[in-house]
Model the fold of this input.
Amino acid sequence: MSSAPRDGAQQEAESASAILLAARELFHSPGYAATRVADIAHRAGVSRATVYNHFADKKSILYKLVRDYMAGYEQIAEWLKTSVDPKASIYELLGNMVREPMLWRIRNADLRPAIEMAKQLPTSGWREANEAADRAMHGWIADVHHASARLNITRPEVDIDFASGALYSMIEATLSTLSTAATVAEVDRITEQLTLLQWHAIYSIRPQDAPVAEDVLPVALMAPVASPAVLTAP
Done:
């Protein structure tokens, strides 16, 4: 039995995905500067005209790849926020917010050359995408700290907004310099250290005494959503 014919929208989506995948591979090697639109079309199995139907030029393809990658960080924050295990401790929640962005960076190691190129181009949208990712990730961490403060388990002398911002900057600096060749064991070690630093800077109780999420966070933050397995860059 033959498969059902694909409609035009599906074909368009498939060709756009093929173009992005081809560009991703070529921007990694031989590199952005050495890659022509014709090379991308050949690798994707489409015509140059098809590439230009989807993207104005090579820069537009680069920008799309980088924006999708940065959007992954926002999706991680949203997934962590809306799929909280009610029985997980808030210490574990903070650790997850450190670990998952590092794993995302490692899983997308091949995009590093493209990202570094985009950083140098003022119209790439990288800066805006990076700021949006920071707002999403820091926002979730701050939510956990503020919810904890309402239970009087944070240090009363600590300004939560200031402390969470300062500590997030430390996490961001670590993330931006993390080797994409880091092992899971190395990620776990870094996660533990950064989570401990957050905890002891803000909380007045021991990590092992951390309450579980259902006792701290509003029920609205714990509605189930899709697994983070869907968070894959094109």
In short: The chain has two domains: 1-55, 66-230.
